[in-house]
Amino acid sequence: MERLFDDVRSAMPADIAFRLCNSRFDSKGVFARLYNILEARLRRARVNHVTGDLHFLVLGLPAKDTILTIHDCGNLHRLKGIRRALLKFLWFTWPLRHVRIVTTISEATKRELITLAGGRAVDIRVIPNCVSKEFVYTPLEPQTGFVRVMMIGTKPNKNVERMTAALAGLSVKVEVVGILTQEQRDLFALHKVPIRELGYISNAEVEEVYRRCDVLAFCSTLEGFGMPVLEAQATGRAVVTSSISSLPEVAGDAACLVDPYDVAAMHEGFKKVVENLPYRQELIARGLVNAARYTPEVIAERYAQVYREVANAR
User: For residue 117, is pLDDT > 90?
Assistant: First the structure.
C-alpha cells in the first residue's frame, strides 16, 4: 500500500501540494487508536486523505474536507461474531458516514461498501491501483521442455491447493513467493508438480521472479484488486486468473479467466496457456495494452481531480 501511494505522489500534477503524515502508533489497543484520531485532528489540512487501513482516523477530521480510501473488505470475511461486528462498525459503517468522498480500487469492492453503508447515500468513486514503473516489459528468454509458472501468496484466498491440483500432469515448474504450509508442500509432492519455495522476498526480488517466469497463476477466491495481474502484464507475462471478485475487472480481456472453485476448469485453462504458445503470446500483447491503463500518471490525475473537487467545495 505504501509503495502504491509513493508511486501516485511521485506522479501528482504540479498544482497539488501534499504533506505525508504517519500515525504515531500501530492500530493496537484503545489508547493508541484514540491518540491517532486526536493526532489526525491536530494535523488536519484543507483537504484530508486517509489512505491506510486506519479508517477510523476520519472520525477526527472534518467530514466535508475528508477523503477515505478503502482497499478491500477482506478482514470482514475472516472474522465472526462480536469481533466482526466491531470491525464492521468502527472500520466501515461509521467512517463511511463521516467523509465527503470514499474512493476504492474496484467495482467489486464498491458493491461491498454500498452494502456496508446500510442504505445511507455515500459518494463512492472507483480509482484503481497503479502499476509501478519498476515493472517493465522484458522479453522472455527461450526455454524448452517446461513452462515456468509463478504463484504469489499462500493464504487461503490465494487458492494454492486447487491451483496445485490443476497443474498436475502439465510440463511446468512452479516458483512460489511466500511460505507454504506443510499441507501445501505435500500437495505439490502428491501431484508431482516441481516447486521452488522462495519465502518472503524483497520487491526487487519479486520483480526478478516475474521476469524469469512464463505464466502467472493467480486464481484467488477473493481479492480487493489483484496487483500481481497488472505487474505480470506490465512485465510481459501471460496470466491465468479467476473469473470472480475484482480479477476480471483488473485483467480486462488480457488473461485466461477460470472458475477458481473448479479444478477441472482451471486445469483446462492452464493447459491452454502452457501448451498453446500463440495463445500465450496473444495474452502477453493484450496484457501490455491493459497495463498501460494503470500508469502512476493516469491514477494520480484521477486522485487530483477528487482533491480539487473537495478543495473547491469549501
Answer: no
Q: How many Cβ atoms from other residues are within 10 Å of residue 275's Cβ?
A: 12
* 136, part of any domain: no
Please say whether the beta carbons of 63 and 57 come within 8 A.
Answer: no
Number of domains in the chain: 2
Tens digit of each residue's pLDDT (9 = 90 or more) over 69-104? 999 988 888 888 998 999 899 999 999 999 999 999
Provide the edge-to-edge strand list for the sheet that holds 195-199. 195-199, 172-177, 147-152, 215-218, 238-242, 256-258
Shared domain check, 274 and 174: yes
The pTM of this model reads: 0.89
**Mean pLDDT for the stretch of residues 143-166:** 95
- Asked whether residue 220 carries a pLDDT value surpassing 70, the answer given is yes
Are 239 and 232 in contact by the 8 Å Cβ rule? The answer is yes
Residue 67 shares a structural domain with residue 187: no
- For residue 280, being part of any structural domain is answered with yes
Task: Say if residues 296 and 7 touch (Cβ distance below 8 Å).
Answer: yes
> What does the pLDDT read at residue 78?
83
Alpha helices, DSSP H only, in 120-197? 160-167, 182-190
Grid cell in block for residue 239:
496470466
User: Tell me, what's the pLDDT at 52?
Assistant: 84
Residue 58 belongs to a domain: yes
Cα gap 240→238, rounded to integer Å: 7
Same domain, 201 and 248: yes
User: Is residue 306 assigned to a domain?
Assistant: yes
From the DSSP assignment, how many helices (H) and strands (E) are in the chain?
14, 10
Task: Give me the sign of the Cα torsion angle 26, 34, 55, 298.
Answer: negative
Residue-range definition of the domain harbouring residue 110: 2-129+295-312
Tell me: do 301 and 290 sit in the same domain.
no
